[in-house]
Structures are given as structure tokens and as C-alpha cells.
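Researcher: Please predict.
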Amino acid sequence: MTTTPVRQEYEVQLEPLHSVPLERRLPLAQRLWQLGWLRKAVILVLLAVVWEGIARYQDNDLLLPSFLQTAVALWDGLASGELPAKVGVSLIILLKGYLLGIVLAFGLTSLAVSTQFGRDLLSTLTSMFNPLPAIALLPLALLWFGLGDNSLIFVLVHSVLWALALNTYAGFLGVSETLRMAGRNYGLRGLRLVLHVLVPAALPSILSGLKIGWAFAWRTLIAAELVFGASSGKGGLGWYIFQNRNELYTDKVFAGLAVVIIIGLLVESLVFDNLERLTVRRWGMQR
């Protein structure tokens, strides 16, 4: 019986990575393109160039001011303090309606996962009110609550509540039965089960609902201010846009719209992206 000879083991010393010149690792352009903020900045610059070209070709400031004219109007509004004051008025109302909508949505979904009546209630209410545009309730809000912030808060709650409730409930339904049983074995019932088991497990769906609710609330507020006008003698960003449209200051109208977009981008990148990075991405629940 013959035996197969054993090959002698050996090691290959690899060159340390830090000794490799930087230019041999990745090209500079490729390294820069890996930065997400830089890619988004390039897209914004391209859009600004296209906007400037179309405006110059059309040559009608009343219909479409150029990007540079809008930038000047935006800077003037910021320097004078008019735009920050309008933004402050809108954001205060928005936060009130958004937070109230979150509380109501959480209570409704907690009831839905706890009782059959709650599930029927959530299903019925979402079927009735989710397809209803929030701005369509503004005449009733003005009739019920009068001229003031409460009317705007009412329509904001409607815009946030149903989208967030549906996403949260869908996330709760997706929690595995194993996690539910583990929570019950620890004596968790009712609201404690929701807080300690269902909410962490369903956090990706909840964050998605929060983002959708924020987008709905922000655009509903601007639309409501366009229709509603000034609240308690103070107009928000939507009123700023509407007022300048009546006075044919189209560059200021575009400046107001640019502020709406900038605030949306800031909230998306600074709040929701960081929240996802610190929670669901860090926990391996989302790529």
C-alpha cells in the first residue's frame, strides 16, 4: 500500500496595504465618485445649468426667471430676514401637526395589534379617510376651528395619521411569531409588548411611514397656506409664495419653492438618513 506524499506547507508574505502608493489603489475620480453627497451635488449643478439654459433661451423673466435671478432673490429674502421668519412660522405649525399625528397613529396601531375591534377600526378608518386629500378638509377645518393654527394642524394630522398608521401596522404584522412568543415568555403584554418587541422589530416600516408622513405633511402645509393665507396675522412659506405670485415677483416665487425643496432635502439627509444609519442599518435590518 503506497501513501501519498504530503506537500510541504509554506507561507507567502503579502505586501502591507499601507506600503502601496495611494495612486495605485483607486483613481482619484473613482474615489470621489464614491461620496454620495458629491454625486448629489453634481446632479444639482447639472439641473441648475439646464434651468439657466432654458430660461435664457425663453428670455421671459415673468414666466421663468433664470437660476441666477432666483439665487439673488433667495439671498435677498434670507438677508432681509423675511424668508427665515416665514419658514419659522410654517415649521412650528408643521411640528405640532406632525407630532400629534404620530401620537394618534401609534395609539391606533397599538389598539389594532391588541384587539379585534382595533383591527376592524383601523381597517375601516383607513379605507374611508386615506384616499381623502387632506387639503379637501380645509373648508371644514375653517368652519370648525376658525381662522388660526388649529385649522392647519387639523389637516396636517389627517395627512400624517393614515400613512403612518398603515406602515406601522404592516410592520407589526411582519414581526415573526417567535419574537412575539419570546416577549410573552418574559411577561410582556399589551403596550409593553408593543414598545419592547414590536416597535424595534418593525422599525424599518415605521421609519418609512415617518418619511412618507413628513412628505405628506410638508406639501399639505404649503398647499393649505396657499389657500388659507395668513394665520393669526402671520403668513408662512406658502403665503409668501402666494403673495409674491399675486404681485408678479416670479423670482421670489421660485425662491420660495427652492426653500421648500431645500428644507425637504435637509430633513431627508440630516434627520431620516442619520436615524436609519444609527438604527436599522447598524442593526443589520436594512442595507
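Model: Residues 64-278 form a domain with the MetI-like fold fold (CATH 1.10.3720.10).
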